[in-house]
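Ticket #4471: complex job returned nothing on first submit. Input attached below:
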Amino acid sequence: MKIAFPSPEFDATVAAVCHGSATDVDMSALNMLLRNNPSARDEYLLRIELHSRLASDPDLFSQAVNAADNRRLPGIGVRDGQKILGLNPTVPTRRSLLAPALAVAACLMLVAGAVWTLWFKPSAVRRGATSTAVAMLTRTVDAHWDQGAKSMRVGGALEPGRLRLESGLAQVVFYSGARMVIEGPTELQLVSPLEAVCPAGRLLLEVPPPARGFRLKTSQLNVVDLGTSFGIDATRGQTALHVFKGKVEFSASTLAKQFLGEGRAAVVQGGAPPRLMAANSDVFTPMFEFQQRSMASEAYRYEQWQFASAQLNRDPSLLVRFDFENPGSKDWTLRNTTERNRSVQEATVVGCVRAEGRWREKQAIEFQSVNDRVRLAVPGAFEALTLSAWVCVKGLDRQFNSLFMSDGFDPGTLHWLIRGDGVLGLTVFGPGNGKFQILASPPAMTLDKLGMWQHLTVVIDGKARQVVHYVNGLPVSHHPLKFGPPFRIGSAELGNWNARSGPDPAPTLIRNLSGSLDEFELFSRALNDAEVRELYAKGKPDV
Amino acid sequence: MSTDSARRFGDSNATQQRFLSLFLRSEREIFRYVAALVPNVTDAEDIVQQTALTLWEKFDAYDLAQPFTPWACRFALNKARQWIERRQRWQTLLDHGLAEELAQRRQELQPEFELRLKHLEGCLGKLPDGQRSLVEGYYFERVDIETLAKRSGRSAAASYKMLQRIRHALQLCVEGQAKPEVA
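Support reply: We reran it on our side without changes. The output follows.
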């Protein structure tokens, strides 16, 4: 069955999917259509979005709730102000999905039930969305707030008003996206998502593009951010402004508007003209460190990697990519996540165990025994190839430890491996039988690197007749290549090698890896230094 | 709990409160994220429920400096994948990378959806009474289709068809409203 777009069949199938009544045949035809027709895909997403909003947004029906006992009330003309859903305890509200789930969690954790029932009133929290908050307190370290202040809770919303941090560090993220770290003692007045006043204290502000134009006032200065990172060290009588990135515009009552660029600082005292000097980050060191710690958090790195992965999957030269995120539980297959090449659908995992990847949430597979391997077949002949992997080597047990190796010794194929002495090796087989070239780096997988995630890449450039080995984004060796293209992969294995030899292979022919893999890429072109560096940067486990 | 995380979270009640307020604020968005993959409402709710459990278990690892919704959606995606894996029909729908593509594309289309669907409430208000009560019954009261069918004297199949038509009418209405950029 094939579905045309637009067509009544399309309409009916999408509706059936919403209602949960679509058949296998419907699903398969829809899959085919959505993958091949971007307009159909977008239309599908819009329809689903409409459907899911109807299902998830009780506010849409607030008129109905208000008029629950009086359906004769005309539907039109009831305005927003009348949405009183959360204020009226007798009004029925849809259950939150959270309630039953958390009930289970509560039992699991032996948490007193009373606490939970308190929170089983989602409407109260939902109404909170209408608050006038302008920012959120996201992180603190040893923070002591002014006694008179309302309770300052991490994760809590901050409404316009004054706050005073007596000591410690706190991060405030404005709803505009601007991130501010303050160090006590600091007084801060929140005005809007794009404006704050700091009569006295020390702060570091980082402003991403959407929050450009953020205004910060001190007793002496008005600063307008133009996409930057800057620090303020203010007392009642003096303000020092340090620009660490980008530039800002500042003015004072007696001064005309001025710009201050990266690496510069201005100190303003009374009505005197500003003293200009080089920016000094020393006083802001604890704040920088605090900022960096939050950027370095695992969840953040993993999320960044996922975004980068989605982009990478669209590279037209990407032939194979395994992220090991979801090894099929039933049949142990690995899906090729590339979007532009379908010549390799998947790989088969033989043996192996699941393991933790670069981040706690990231999945990996570990090769332990001589049987463990991932098999795949890559058809085609190529002028250039790039192989790249994130690998955590437990030990170099064999003389040759396979990373990715074509079966046997066929002409034009490749063996990528780590030698027992830590040398990265690539063997390229020439056009005739028995001809090959070994391209070996200096020892790169040294003892100190075992047990840690490493990014390894090898680039085979047929045009430039060159092979380059990389470790963690940097080239470690360049080698002229004797043989020209075409290069092939054919049937191949990750983490092992199929020698295509007899039943009792010689020890040199046992080449299983001892370690884990959590990402692998094969490109049909030669990546340059910058691209390899970027590949590494986007995937490195920490900052 | 380590001293570090204890300091970060305060006592466990405070942690629960924090989690609940974050989750409840994101719940609708998580549901829609899941529904883009598995649009059937009860199934999507199932997945969100399982996600909520996982989120609570993993809340320790959540970095409060990061936005909650994207963090939660990562788990929702994993839960959805696991759920889909066990259901052939949904697997067929989302095979060959379509799940990832839909999730990604939905993200890109988000601003456009916001623009169009902000008129949804107004458009719902314009529906004739009979249609409106069907939509309310199905989406808001969560009455099953047989009961709704009985209520209206239609067959179940006809009620489904009617829901499809109503959604179509709503779509035309919101698009009509979005175009001139009046609001």
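Residues 179 and 292 of chain A are 12 Å apart (CA to CA). Closing as resolved unless it happens again.
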